[in-house]
Predict the structure.
Amino acid sequence: MRNNILGGLVIFVVVLTCLLMLDDISNVQDQPVKNDTVQIEHVESNTDLAVVEESE
């Protein structure tokens, strides 16, 4: 009896995983493509340092 419950649970998880994968694969066309852009500012000879003050 215990083997039947374990086997049924395994089959249920496998089928659920396959259905979720098929759903994700079939909905790829509906998702918009987002392009992330990064802007980098190059500053030369900048010697500003952060100062951390501790008060006791």
Q: What stands out?
A: Helices lie at 2-26.
